[in-house]
Amino acid sequence: MEKIRMTTPLVELDGDEMTRILWEKIKEDLIKPYVDLKTEYYDLGLEMREKTKDQVTVDAANAIGKFGVGVKCATITPNAQRVEEYKLTKMWKSPNGTLRAILDGTVFRTPIVVNNIHSVVRNWVKPITIARHAYGDIYKATEYRVPEEGRAELIFTNKNGEVTFRETIYDFECAGVLQGAYNKDSSIYSFAHACFQYALDLKQDLWFSAKDTISKQYDHRFKDIFAELYENEYQVQFEAIGIHYKYMLIDSAVAGLMQCPGGILWACKNYDGDVMSDMVSSAFGSLAMMTSVLVSPDGKYEYEAAHGTVQDHYYKHLKGERTSTNPIATIFAWTGALHKRGEMDDLHELCAFADKLEEACLSTVEDGIMTGDIAPLCDTPVEAVYTDDFMSAVRIRLDALMR
Ligand code: NAP
Ligand code: MG
User: What is the value of pTM for the model shown?
Assistant: First the structure.
């Protein structure tokens, strides 16, 4: 069989521990037999980040900016214990944080849905994607523990040193707490652009929620920016493919979500996204069945699994034990990236291959062959299989689909 051709390379970001082991197997056993894989390779494994003083992460981000599509393996975010373990000269920053900052991107997380594992919310039969605006608000706030009676004020001084706004927040008659949060128009515009673009990609309705009835300046600014972009730039494209944008108060969005069948993209402010993404992912079952995409406002994409490097499985692997690590989210990172590359380069065969590989994974699970993390969630009791056996079962189904 002739291999499927690629024209532009995918930016490949290798990673750490168990996911690095999976990464190689996925490429060798499930992709390279069918695709003449072209990648621009960056090793984001912790050793290489140490060796290059983290320059490799910056270079990888810039390569995604240049080529438009990247695929990333999970990586270790160093902490004190990792500094010791890997003899690091510095506690290097989270690679995901660096990529997000350079690409100015928004992260979208989507569960992978199979028909024999049900969400605990019975009516959620289609995936729900959450977009979190990962900038500002309480995550960058200044806080003060008010120790005594006194006045708290909100003051704005312009760059000429003139006070252009001054208002009393509260006249404290006793001790209390105080918080100053901010956000920036530029960041909100980027977030909104990424959300509209990703809704067009998913061909799903977009909701944005906030509490503008209470927060008449702050949340209202978010609402206005979404409304402005929708009217001026996206409404025509949305209507052309039959999807809708709506603004909702956060409480009615929560109520609406519980009643809906899923199949929507929900854009959340920073804190709401932090909380709601954990709720949605736990309702759908397993972190190992969750994909994650970083989308920049100018339409660059970086695909990855939502989970980490699965450290405890890696230590077992090093001792020579077989593990039952779920490769699905990492495989879907590859299929997402290959599909996007295919769309951008007009390579229908590459898109079709990505679809078939996904189908092979889903049908393997739906045939009752699955790893230990999801076996207990299955409708009918099944024996968990080892990673290798799971991947062989996927390969058999993929072969059949490709024939
Ligand atoms: P983790 O790697 O996501 O694993 C947490 C637990 O979830 C595992 O111990 C395992 O549970 C289960 N799990 C996760 N993925 C699985 C899979 N594919 N198959 C089967 N079970 C799976 O999180 P962590 O242990 O907190 O973090 C490990 C390292 O990953 C850390 O160094 C962290 O910095 C990094 N991390 C990276 C990213 C990223 O690159 N995007 C994200 C998160 C964490 P059992 O032990 O019960 O089997
Ligand atoms: Mg959270």
Answer: 0.90
> For 285-325, what is each residue's pLDDT tens digit?
788 899 999 999 889 999 999 999 999 999 999 999 999 99
Which residue in 377, 376, 373, 370 sits closest to 393, CA to CA?
370
31-34 contact pairs (CB < 8 A, 24+) = 31/334, 31/338, 31/357, 34/1, 34/3, 34/4, 34/353, 34/398, 34/402
* Residue minimizing CA distance to atom 31 of ligand 1: 76
Per DSSP, which regions of 96-160 are E strands? 106-111, 128-132, 142-146, 150-157
Question: How many angstroms is it from 312 CA to the middle of ligand 1?
Answer: 8
Whether residue 243 contacts residue 198, with contact meaning beta carbons closer than 8 Å, is answered with no
pLDDT in tens, 86-130: 999 999 999 998 998 899 889 999 999 999 998 889 899 999 999
Nearest CA to ligand 1 atom 38: 308
Within its chain, how far is the Cα of 170 from the centroid? Answer: 39
74 lines ligand 1 (CB under 6 A): yes
Residues with Cβ within 8 Å of 172's Cβ and at least 6 positions away in sequence, in order, are 146, 148, 149, 150, 151, 152
Decide: 57 in ligand 1 pocket, CB within 6 A.
no
Ligand 1 pocket, 387 CB below 6 A? Answer: no
Residue listed under structure tokens 């200044």 = 142
The CA distance from 359 to 240, in Å, is: 28
The Cα–Cα gap between 44 and 62 comes to: 14
Tokens of 291: 């994909």
Helices 17-25 and 328-345 cross at an angle (nearest 10°) of 50
CA dihedral of residues 144, 145, 151, 155 (deg, nearest 10): 10
272 CA distance to ligand 2 middle (Å): 9
Nearest CA to 361 out of 335, 323, 325, 324 is that of: 335
